[in-house]
Amino acid sequence: MTSSVVAVWTHRSVLRLLVQRDLTVKYQQSVLGYFWSLIEPLSMGLIYWFIFGVLYDTQLPNGAPYPMFILSGIFAWMWVNSSIGEATSALTGQSRLITTMKVPREVFPVGRVVARFAEYLAGLPLLFIAALIFDAPFGWSLICLPFAVLLQAALLIGIALLLSSANVLLRDVERFMRLAQRVLFYAAPVIYPLSKVMESDLPSWAKTLYEANPLVGIFQLHHAAWYPDQIPSPTLLSTTIAGCLILLLGGWWVFRRLEPAVLKEL
Q1: Quick one: pLDDT at residue 91?
Q2: What is the structure's pLDDT at 264?
Q3: What are phi and psi of 58, to 5 degrees?
Q4: For the chain, which has fewer Cβ within 10 Å, the N-terminal or C-terminal residue?
C-alpha cells in the first residue's frame, strides 16, 4: 500500500487534471454551472426543514437553530452521496483511459472523491453565512470541521476503491449501492440529532450497532463545528477513527488484489 500511495502522490498532476476534467464536463453545458452544487443541497435542506422542522416541530437541545443543523448535515451528505454514486462507475466509465494511460489506477476513483470535495468546499462560505443568519453558537468548535473532513475523505477513498474495483467484476454492485445510499442517509444523524437515537427505546445492542457506523461520528463532527454541544464522545470518536482507517486500508488492499482481474475485464 505504501508504494501505491507514493505512486498516486507522484502522479498528483494527473489526479488534478482528472478532477478539472470531471468538473468541467459536469458543468460545461449548464447555465448556472457550479451554482448547482449549492442549489441542490439548499433545496434539500429547505424540504427537510419544512417536513421535520415545521410539520414535526423537531427541536435541538438548548433550543439551537434547527435550519443550520440541517444545512451542515446536508452539505456533508452531498459529498458522501455523490462520491459513492460516481466512484462505483469510476473504472467502468473510463476503461479506455485506464487501459491506455500509464498511471496508478487508484487515481480514477480517488479523483471522483476529490472532485466532489471541491464542490463541498464551494459550499463552505454559504455555511458560514447561514451560521451568522441563524445565530449558530459556533466558535472554537470549528476545529472539528477539518477533522471531520479528514475522516470523511479517508472513509470515502476507501469505499471508492472498494466499490469501483468490485463493480467491474460484479455489475450488481452499482445497483445495490443505489439502495444502500438511501439507507445510509437515514442511518446517520444527517438531519436529526444523535440524542434522538440514544434516548429512544431501541435496545442497547441496536444503539451500539448504530454507533459502529463511521458516518455517525463524522456527521456528529460536522454538526459539532457549529454546535459545541454536539461534540461526539471519546468512545464514538475512537470507533469512528478505527472504522475509517479499516475501510481505507481494506479498500486499498482489495483494489490492489483485484487490479489484475479488473484490467483483464476492462
Answers
A1: 82
A2: 79
A3: -70, 130
A4: N
Do residues 15 and 110 make contact, with C-beta atoms less than 8 angstroms apart?
yes
Locate all alpha helices (DSSP H) within 143-231, ordered by sequence.
Answer: 144-169, 172-186, 194-198, 204-211, 214-224
DSSP letters along 93-138, please? GGHHHHHHS-S-TTHHHHHHHHHHHHHHHHHHHHHHHHHHHTT---
Confidence label for 8 from pLDDT (cuts 50, 70 and 90): confident
User: For residue 211, what pLDDT is reported?
Assistant: 92
How far is it, in rounded angstroms, from Cα 17 to Cα 114?
Answer: 11
Q: How far apart are CA 124 and CA 107, in angstroms?
A: 25
pLDDT of the residue at 2: 66
- In this predicted structure, what is the pLDDT of residue 32? 64
Q: How far apart are CA 43 and CA 153, in angstroms?
A: 24
Helices and strands counted in the chain (H then E)? 12, 0
Distance, CA of 66 to CA of 78 (rounded, Å): 18
State the residue for C-alpha cell 442517509.
185
Quote the crossing angle between the two packed helices 66-87 and 214-224, to the nearest 10°: 140
Is residue 145 within 8 A of residue 225, CB to CB? The reply is: yes
Measured CA to CA, the distance from residue 140 to residue 224 in angstroms comes to: 10
Q: Could you tell me which of 202, 264, 225 has the C-alpha nearest to residue 146?
A: 225
Q: What is the spatial distance between Cα 130 and Cα 10, in angstroms, rounded to a whole number?
A: 39
What are the Cα distances from residue 96, in Å, to 4, 23, 99, 208, 263?
21, 19, 5, 45, 11
Mean of pLDDT values over 19-48: 77
| Grid-cell match 459513492, residue found | 84
Q: Which residues contact 249 (CB under 8 A, 6 or more apart)?
A: 1, 158
Report the distance separating Cα 141 and Cα 223, nearest Å: 10
pTM of whole model > 0.85?
yes
Q: Judge whether 256 and 4 are in contact, CB under 8 Å.
A: yes
